[in-house]
Amino acid sequence: MIKERVKTLRAGIGTLLAMGGAICIVTVMPAAAQNAALPLAGILGPDSKIAFHSDREGRDSPDEIYVMSADGSGERRVTPTTDACNAINPRWSPNGHRIAFHCFTDAPPFSEIYLIDADGTGMTQLTNMTPAGLGAAFASWSPKGNKIAFSSALSPNIYVVDVDERVVTQLTSFACGANRPDWSPDGRKLVFNSVRSSQCPFPPQVYVVEDIDHPDVAVRLTFTGTNRAARWSPDGSKITFESTRDNNPNGATEIYVMNADGSAQLRLTEFPGMDSVPSFSPDGHWIVFHRQLFIIDGLEPPNGSDLFAVPADGSGGIVQLTNQAPRSFSSFASWAPGVLRPAEGAER
User: For the chain, what percentages of helix, strand and coil (3-state, to nearest 5) are there?
Assistant: First the structure.
């Protein structure tokens, strides 16, 4: 029941792997705004870590997961290049010891959730949904780290897997589907976006399940344009998301933030290209996202993208974190917890 209230394969389900031709440069923000000086310490300093996925190994090689310091230094690959699938959408465990991601191939069709230790060891497949014709994508850890919510790559609804037992339970069965779940910090709620389908011709919108014990009761939070890729703030008071509501050229998305009840929706970015997949810093003061700076002939987003950060309060001062486009993209960023705590239970 829904209550109403006031790549691309590389980008999740598929991608073109062929090498692009000509590069068309998208108009970029003024350098002063785009390249604001990075603070030398604190959340944008070298001790703060961000995971993301990229094609650093080359466009003809699978995408891999990387980790870097928030000031752009110390970049290192986490996933092994020996695996043949695209490693996509990394998400840190609550204690910062592990990273969940989904591994995808187009032929043969395959999409499953994997876990890997933050140092690049101990990679293991967590789900096995492909044989049932479902697949698994877009992982989100529960606050205790003992469960992971995810959406099916082919039959969009939300499922939960127990990290220890590896038992999978279907959580939602909305007619409009449910994609890209994100677990609230208190463990009681899930935010997600609907899916356009024959039953739901309107664009994807952001919803929230307000009680995890009643997962088929959801509240709609957005109403204009396409709205998706929602993430909670660390204290659960805010939600960030991407939206097309302001009619950018070619349906490009911008980054927004709102209160957890859907009120006070605020636009944070303004750019002719795509600003996508926002994620809060562990102190809640910044939001990292990827921005498509270049359009590469024959390749879809996130190709041509770099990582940026914007203050979550709308005060401006956008900071560029990576500078690899167009030769390589950086996308689907996830900020590590601010303080690593001891491993507990399934989190190790």
Answer: 5, 40, 55
pLDDT score for 201 = 75
Say how far apart CA 325 and CA 327 lie, in whole Å: 5
Domain borders along the chain are: 36-86+163-334
Q: Quick one: tokens of 160?
A: 């939960």
- Give the integer Cα–Cα distance in Å for 302 and 290: 8
Write the DSSP string, 20-57.
P--EEEPP---HHHHBPPPPSSGGGSTTSEEEEEE-TT
Other Cβ atoms closer than 10 A to 7:
22
- pLDDT for the residue numbered 29: 37
Please count the CA atoms within 13 angstroms of the CA of 203 that sit on its side-chain side: 13
> In this structure, what token pair is assigned to residue 140?
């989100």
End-to-end CA distance of the chain: 37
Q: Which residues contact 338 (CB under 8 A, 6 or more apart)?
A: 43, 48, 281, 282, 283
**Cβ atoms 231, 278 nearer than 8 A:** yes
Q: Compute the distance between CA of residue 239 and CA of residue 226 in angstroms, rounded to an integer.
A: 16
Query: What dihedral do alpha carbons 221, 223, 229, 231 form, nearest 10°?
Result: -20
Q: Could you report the average pLDDT of every consecutive run of 10 residues in the chain (348 residues)? A: 39 30 36 39 84 95 96 95 91 97 90 96 96 94 97 88 96 91 97 85 92 93 96 98 88 96 96 95 96 94 96 92 96 85 49
Q: Which CATH class is domain 36-86+163-334?
A: mainly beta
pLDDT for res 269 = 95
Phi, psi of 249 (to 5 degrees): -60, 140
DSSP state of 14: B
Strand partners, 257: 240, 266
* Distance set, CA 319 to CA 29, 33, 35, 195, 226 (Å): 11, 7, 5, 32, 25
